[in-house]
Amino acid sequence: MHGGAAGSAERWPREAWLPLLAGLTWLWSAPGHGFVGFLFSVIPGCLLLGSGVAMLLLSGDRRSAQWAAGGGVLGVLFALPAFLVVGFAAGLLLVLVSAASFVAAGWHSIKLELPHEAVPAPELTVALAAQVAIDEALVAEMVSRTAMPARAAAEDLGRELTRALDLFGARGWLAAPATFHANPPALEAPRIERRNLRSREFEHLSFESGYEPHAEEPGRDRWLGYARNRTAHAWVLRHPGAERPWLMCIHGYVMGWPLVDFAVFQPELFHEQLGLNLILPVLPLHGQRSMGRRSGEGFFGANVMDMLHAEAQAMWDLRRCLSWVRGQGDSRVGVYGLSLGGYNAALLAGLDEQLACVVAGVPVADFARIVHRHGPAISIRTAEGAGLGEERMREVKRVVSPLELAPQVPHAHRHLFAGVADRIVPPDHVRDLWRHWHEPEIVWYQGGHCSFRAHPQVARMLQGALTSAGLTSA
Questions:
Q1: Three-class SS string for 87-131?
Q2: Which of these ranges, 83-92, 193-202, 214-223, 339-348, has the smallest mean pLDDT?
């Protein structure tokens, strides 16, 4: 089944009845699940019922799809133990209504999103709805765990932003963003530890980053106080013997652990089948560098200067890793980044003249835009009142924006891919980067943020990009 263009906020959408009825089913059956089961039943029941009602009464509010998708995921997970408590038939009913609500959330989201110029229209299918629902559930989870500052703290951050704009303007960095980035020293003798993960041997490379914000930069002392972040890490897979080309793989938000990074970047393809050496750096505030309860905490939010320092340090660390790679013999290096990693790959391509190719997958292109899209509404209003509005955030971030630096990689070796219905990084980000790069090869697939592996045209483009850059002959 195919639908028309997205962006229609219809009144009383039919798909809203699925999460509404699923929520009622959960709450109706809750007393039969025992006391503990009752508590678990209330969570998906309330989420699904509330989001279904919101779809009906708050037409056009995309947050209802996020919570319906989240409720659908929890419903499926919480229904599995119900098979043992209430029997097969009742458990199966809870699974089915929860899964149907999950797909309905994606369907609703596709219908709500306005079309993007120069982006292919999404085809309204059940498969696409399920992929979009994955994105929406992840957004709901991220938003629920994002701590935004109180007004007094936000005002302090707003004053930091004002001082940064004055300083960056006076030093000419806003006019010439590339000059903001100092050339880091070469990385010559990192610590290397051999490790094993699920029968895969790899090297754990670590070194003292050495990055420091410029003198007088607001937030400098706070940033230097993040002790764990001062040590940089990377995972390395290299072949013994003859020199091989390298591929730098840059992970996305909340990644930075070898188990997750290897699962996403497919060493079995790039390292084993195509014969490349791989280096997977860990971005600031991620993995072993994290300062909070989860990887990446603090990278996005109202703390504009921490976000800026994180990105500046990412460029410093990635360029140091590149210097080490090139010192191993073969100087041919491509870079492949996903999501936040796509942003970093694109920014790196504006600072390094020797990259063989760059592939930016589902890349963020504008930090200010993404924060203001996904941030809780009341927190965004608080931030704007404190001087942390979207345009001021975008202005100070010119110095770390891939949309402000001219790409140094030859046009034929710039590549992008993106989902037409991505809800984590909306497709206008990728379109804007594509235009800034003078419209090189781009693959649009009928999917969301996390489903690119399910679309064979992405794999074909990746291998073609590596082959055309001379990194592999496969």
A1: CHHHHHHHHHHHHHHHHHHHHHHHHHCCCCCCCCCCCCCHHHHHH
A2: 83-92
Last residue of a domain, one of 128, 144, 160: 144
Q: Which of 133, 6, 7, 121 is nearest to 444 (CA)?
A: 121
Are residue 136 and residue 167 in the same domain, yes or no?
A: no
Angle between helices 88-112 and 17-29 (to 10 degrees): 150
pLDDT band at 384, cuts 50/70/90?
confident
pLDDT at 35: 72
Cα 464 versus chain centre, distance: 24
- Cα 248 to Cα 188: distance, rounded to the nearest angstrom: 18
Q: Which amino acid is at 220?
A: R
DSSP string, 351-396: T-S--SEEEEES----HHHHHHHHS-HHHHHHHHHTT--HHHHHHH
Helical (H) or strand (E) element with 332: none
Q: Which residue, among 254, 220, 215, 255, has the nearest Cα to 235 in the 3D structure?
A: 255
Question: The whole model's pTM is what?
Answer: 0.93
Q: What average pLDDT does range 327-340 have in this prediction?
A: 93
Does 252 have pLDDT greater than 50? yes
For 401-414, letters b (16+ CB in 10 Å) and e give bbbbbebebeeebb
Q: Is residue 138 part of a domain?
A: yes
**What type of residue sits at position 429?**
H
Spatial contact of 387 and 159, defined as CB atoms under 8 Å apart: yes
Q: Tell whether 130 and 173 lie within a shared domain.
A: no
- 227: domain CATH number is 3.40.50.1820
9 found inside a domain? no
Phi, psi of 451 (to 5 degrees): -105, 15
Average pLDDT, the chain: 92
307 and 188 in a common domain: yes
> Does some domain include residue 68?
yes
Question: 6 CB contacts (<8 Å, ≥6 apart)?
Answer: 110, 111, 112, 113, 114, 115, 121, 122, 124, 421
Decide: 399 and 341 in contact? Cβ < 8 Å: no
Sheet holding 357-361, edge to edge: 191-197, 200-208, 231-237, 277-281, 246-250, 333-338, 357-361, 414-419, 441-445
Structural domain count, the chain? 2
Tell me whether residue 6 is in a domain.
no
Both 136 and 211 in one domain: the answer is no
- Domain end: 111, 127, 144, which one? 144
